[in-house]
UniProtKB/TrEMBL annotation, chains A, B:
Keywords of this entry: DNA-binding, Transcription, Transcription regulation
Gene3D superfamilies attached to this UniProt entry: Winged helix-like DNA-binding domain superfamily/Winged helix DNA-binding domain
UniProt-listed SUPFAM superfamilies: Winged helix' DNA-binding domain
InterPro entries noted in UniProt: HTH_HxlR, WH-like_DNA-bd_sf, WH_DNA-bd_sf
Any Pfam family: HxlR
Domain HTH hxlR-type: 26-124
Domain of life assignment: Bacteria
Protein's name in the database: Transcriptional regulator
GO molecular function: DNA binding
Length: 134, 134
DNA sequence: CCGTATCCGCCCCGATACTG
DNA sequence: CAGTATCGGGGCGGATACGG
């Protein structure tokens, strides 16, 4: 397999695992930016078992600020991971729930969570050893 | 299932998918910080098919700066994803290769890449629709 | 209850220049 | 070839206060 890189029609292309990746418009980078934020993946996981209201999410994730809760929900809604429905009560209540896209993302996300839980100790150990040398 | 949150022995615990998550020392957050960087996951993918030298990686990923290449490699080595071996030639050559930990991470990572490639269009579409309304 | 608006510190990352 | 050192912009995210 050829792993060289080059400019193809002015595009930066990186061969990774035999698949050409357009770095200028990279899907992986794009998705990673979405869920790589501090709260995004946790938000999706929190909604995995059913819809929740704004204040419920706030109580469920006590450490998040009101600002970041709003922003995270808006970003995830914008990218299609979740939907927002407003119930015209008094005072108003807003419910957030995963879309099909959001639910489908749970598959790789949960695998990632499992891996993290299984290998966290190994990582912490490696880190400690590295720091001990330095 | 109970999804309430609470202080357990002074720790912030969030119930997610039935699993209690300690937010103060969260493995998922820890791992996400490692590979959530701009170049980290791409670096691991680049080394998936075999060891590469510093300059080879530099050519393979043309957009990365020398500084970030060094830093990314050091961070990934520190957390145990890859190993660094120096060959005492003149001039010196340094080879980077995935460890067992790094290779095992390829499983969830590749699943994530596949999902990104499959759903990128849907995300871009959702984003366009959202922006059109606003 | 469900947000907005504003200010601001921090740190990621790029650019550039220099070493062994 | 394989790094290190230094500077600086920009954006993420926290704190706080205010609005419908």
């Amino acid at each position: 397999m050829n792993r060289t890189t080059g400019a193809v029609k002015g595009k930066r292309v990186v061969m990774v695992c035999g698949v050409p990746m357009d770095m200028a418009n990279c899907p992986v980078r794009d998705v990673m930016d979405n869920i790589g934020g501090k709260w995004n993946s946790l938000m999706i996981l929190s909604l995995a078992e059913g819809p929740l209201r704004f204040s419920q999410l706030r109580r469920l994730i006590p450490d998040i600020s009101q600002r970041m809760l709003t922003q995270t929900l808006r970003d995830l809604q914008r990218d299609g991971y979740l939907s927002r429905t407003v119930y015209p009560t008094q005072p108003p209540s807003v419910e957030y729930s995963l879309t099909d896209l959001g639910r489908s993302f749970l598959v790789p996300l949960k695998l990632f969570v499992d891996w993290s839980l299984q290998n966290h100790d190994a990582i912490r150990k490696a880190r400690a050893e590295y720091d001990a040398v330095a």
